[in-house]
Design brief:
The chain is α/β, with parallel strands linked by helices and 265 residues long. It has 10 helices and 10 strands. The longest helix is centred in the middle third of the chain and has 21 residues.
Length: 265
């Protein structure tokens, strides 16, 4: 059994009387590829926001490598080793691809304001080393040819890769991907699925993703958790989830076909 990396216990989140998460438990083991699925409004992104410090939880515990993340701000969560992407692309206007990656490295850099202003030897050396690491990361994600291009002008699939590269620049152990294939065509989705596997296999990064593409989820995931109306209704392997009557009723409304794939309503 691999080490437990993320351990969420009894997570609660309310918004003006609306309970978005109800006593949610979720565990992710090191080097796993896991998925969080459910209908729109089930609380999936709220869960990500609570884990990553964008929302303060109302109750429960979030442990990462056994250490509590309770009350930590988003920047402290990044330093702990968790990075994320968002449902919609959040790229900076008028910034190149490599500049996005360098922004992602900011939390790991040690140059202070005075060093940066005075352009001290330490600042220049760290800047040079950061640029080298950024280019190596762009090579890994297949974006070397686009280094100096404006990120927001790239094809959609490549824009998603820029976001992932920016998240990877913070050197995470756990990467949370929020609907990474949204808006992608089938070929881009297939390419991203292979890339996610490379992140785990070649970089040792643990992946937790929110995704609506059930074929991708069932193909790539080792373990799946299902939310509905903010509550966890099922968890298990893809084979177990495909045959779970609660998931079929709450999420898809149909039985799987003979090949074990979920059909369409």
């Amino acid at each position: 059994m691999t080490q437990l990396l993320l351990d969420v216990q009894g997570l609660m989140k309310r918004f003006d009387g609306l309970t978005a998460l109800r006593w949610v438990d979720l565990q992710v083991h090191e080097h796993a590829i896991a998925s969080l699925i459910g209908p729109n409004g089930a609380g999936k992104t709220t869960f990500f926001n609570c884990v990553t410090g964008f929302h303060a939880s109302d109750d429960g515990e979030i442990l990462f490598r056994g250490e509590s993340l309770w009350g930590k701000t988003a920047d402290r969560v990044v330093l702990a080793g968790i990075a994320r992407t968002f449902q919609s692309t959040r790229l900076f206007g008028n910034m190149s691809v490599i500049e996005h990656v360098l922004v992602g490295m900011h939390s790991r850099l040690k140059t202070g304001v005075l060093d940066a202003i005075l352009r001290t030897p330490f600042a220049r050396r760290e800047e040079s080393e950061a640029a080298q690491r950024a280019r190596a990361l762009l090579e890994f994600v297949g974006l070397t040819a686009y280094e100096q291009q404006l990120a927001e002008r790239l094809p959609y699939g490549l824009m998603r890769r820029v976001e992932i590269a920016r998240a990877l620049a913070s050197e995470p152990s756990l990467l949370l991907l929020d609907e990474p294939t949204a808006g992608m065509n089938p070929q881009e989705t297939e390419d991203l699925m292979r890339f996610i596997r490379r992140l785990r296999d070649e970089r040792g990064i643990t992946i937790l993703l929110i995704e609506h593409d059930m074929r991708l989820v069932m193909t790539i995931s080792e373990y799946i958790t299902v939310l509905d109306y903010g509550k966890k209704i099922a968890e298990g392997t893809p084979a177990e989830i495909q045959r779970d009557s609660r998931v079929i009723e709450a999420y898809l409304g149909v039985m799987p076909d003979e090949g074990g794939e979920f059909g369409r309503p």
